[in-house]
Structures are given as structure tokens and as C-alpha cells.
Amino acid sequence: MRTEARIRPELREVYSQFPGFQLEENLEWSRGLVSAAPLKRSEDVNTTSRKIPGVGGEILVKIYEPAGRTGDLLPAMLWIHGGGYVLGHPDMDDELCERFVQAAECIVVSVDYRLAPEHPYPAAIEDCYAGLVWMTTEAAELLGIDVNRVAIAGASGGGGLTAALALMARDKGGPSIIFQMPLYPMLDNRNIMPSSHEITEEGAVWNRKDNLAAWNMYLGEENDVSAESPYAVPSRADNLAGLPPTYTCVGQLDLFRDETIEYVTRLAQAAVDVEFHLYPGCFHLFEIFVPETEVSQRAIHGYMDAMARALHP
Which pTM does this prediction carry? Predict the structure, then answer.
């Protein structure tokens, strides 16, 4: 059965209108598909941008704060945008980051990590780690961050980087993270799970062809070597013990469904507290593409509430 026929009726029209990515044929055009739309800024959130030091040079970060905040320290969340490691920019998640600020009463730092294929692994994870270190050290006093309440989160490729960052922070002995939220994460370059064979239609929001191309761009010419590192491919991690409590969700018609379920299962087996939601009839990024529907609102409220609970225990 075609994927479109299984999609919830209220999501079907938008799905059918998406042209599909062309990562190998026209990467720049594909990057334009995820560029940010003009946003009416919330009066309740202040947004600033600044450059911070990184391994490969300066990194742009966007900082979102409550407009009427007092002098009290606030919890913070590092946000990692999606895009399969090859697309995207923090600007495209402005509205989402503003919503996290308001829902979770926190500061959000969104990092503009380097993209493949121009900058293959380990550029992206190095930049994400640099952002986490910056916000929990020199920026903590500047931004008024409570370093005992720091979370990391991201979606799709950003979810994969979130999972990798949690592993890296654990293995390096810090910075301390109390919660991770890798939403429908891109975790496994092997593409051997049943769901990785199910989404093959041209025009799908993220299909098998997209995934194979993106992983090849990200892992670069040293694919075989890079793929052995859990910081490149989080599903390769031998040990998930000691990771922070986790929240994730995925649509049942998402190519990443099975690798997300396997990750959740392994977290639970490693005694990591994990909350997981599977949304039937939903495709990759459904709540971003069609945010006004009931199922999308349910998904968004679910992860907003989970972040709020984690940062205000």
C-alpha cells in the first residue's frame, strides 16, 4: 500500500503537495525548501545572536529568553535544528524555540553547526559540543543559566546529534545534562530496519533515497571508519547506561520509526528513564508541516510539557 493512502486524512493534502528533496541532484535547492518563513516575533521572548568559539572557527548561536525575566537563574536547553546533517539553519526553528521558552520557562540556545558535505563528521557534533560547553561555562553567568538544570533537544538530524551529544557529554564527564529530547532521531546509517525500506516514494518528506544520500554526505570518504563511532552513528553505541532521562516520539509512517523504537528499548534496558510516543498515520515532521491539526497539537504539547517537567522538577 502506498504511504499516502495510510496517512491520516487531515495530514494528506500537505503531504501530497511537498515536492520532495533532491539532495544528490540539487542540494542548494533542497536547502531552500527548509529556509525560514517570515515570523511574527513573540513579544514575550527576546532573541539575540552571537558568535562563539568552536573547533573550526566561530559558530553562530541564537539565544531566546523570556522578555520579562527577573534576576533568578533559569534552566536552559540547547536546541539542535534538523535537516539530515546536510540542511537547515537555526532561523527555521524560531517559532519552536520561542514556544519552548514560554512553555518551559527557560533559556534556549540554538546552535548553527556546520553542515555536510562541505563539513562532514565530526564537524557538526564538535560544534554542538562547543555550544553546550559555552552555555554551561562562560555564558552561564552572562545569561543567568542554572547549570544544574540543562537539557538538550533536537529533531530529525538534530535528534541524532542530540543522542550523539548525550553520549559525548557522558563519556567526557560533562557538561552535566539532566534531560535529552531526540525527536524522531536520525540514528542509524545502515538502513536495515523495516521502516527504512517502507518510505520510498518520490515526494515523501524523507525517503530512503534521501537518507542514504545524507548519511553518505555526512560520513564522507571515511565512511567505514566514521560509522564505527557512536558520536557519528548513535545506534552503534555499545552502552547506553548513564544517559539522562529521555523523551522521544515518532510517526508510524516515518522512516526513522524502527531505529527510534530500538533506541527507546535499549535505553529502557539500560535503566534509563524514557517516555515514548508513536503517532499512527503520521509522517516525518508531521507536526511541523501541519501544526494546526489535533494530532499535531497533541504531539507538540506532549514534548513541550515533557521539557517543562524536566527543567522544573
Answer: 0.97
